[in-house]
Amino acid sequence: MFEKDLSLSVLYDLYGSLLTPAQQRVFESYYGEDFSLAEIAADVGISRQAVRSLLVRASEELKNYEEKLGLRKKNETLKTLCDRLALQEAPEEKEKILAEIREIL
User: Fold this and answer.
1) CA-to-CA distance for 11 and 101, rounded, in angstroms?
2) Rounded-to-integer distance, Cα 32 and Cα 71, Å
3) pLDDT tens digit string along 1-54?
4) How far is it, in rounded angstroms, from Cα 17 to Cα 45?
5) Same domain, yes or no: 63 and 22
6) Of 70, 78, 76, which Cα lies nearest the Cα of 104?
């Protein structure tokens, strides 16, 4: 059985527009609408195996984009730094955090 990796949804939000329209449709049906492979196959008019292949390829591409571009990791780091900045009262510490944020950007 094909297991859902829900962390792929975050990657899809970042890189989904780089996938083919067929990959996007299948990915959104499977992860966004929670359709089964058989339901998607019937809706799209392809075999269940073709749906699975599209999902596997889309997942590989999303992971590859993240490996090369690292937007998810940068977003997580920026969120952590912003949270630290919001809690920080010392001006010199705020400047250090801001410098880290600027470096990432």
Assistant:
1) 22
2) 21
3) 466 787 899 999 999 999 999 999 999 999 999 999 999 999 999 999 999 999
4) 22
5) yes
6) 78
Q: What element of type H or E holds 32?
A: none
Residue-wise pLDDT for 50-69, tens only, equals 999 999 999 999 999 999 99
Give the HSE-up count for residue 84: Cα atoms under 13 Å, Cβ half-sphere. Answer: 16
In a domain, 13, yes or no: yes
**76 and 65 in a common domain:** no
Q: Give the domain extent around 82.
A: 72-104
CATH code for the domain of 21: 1.10.10.10
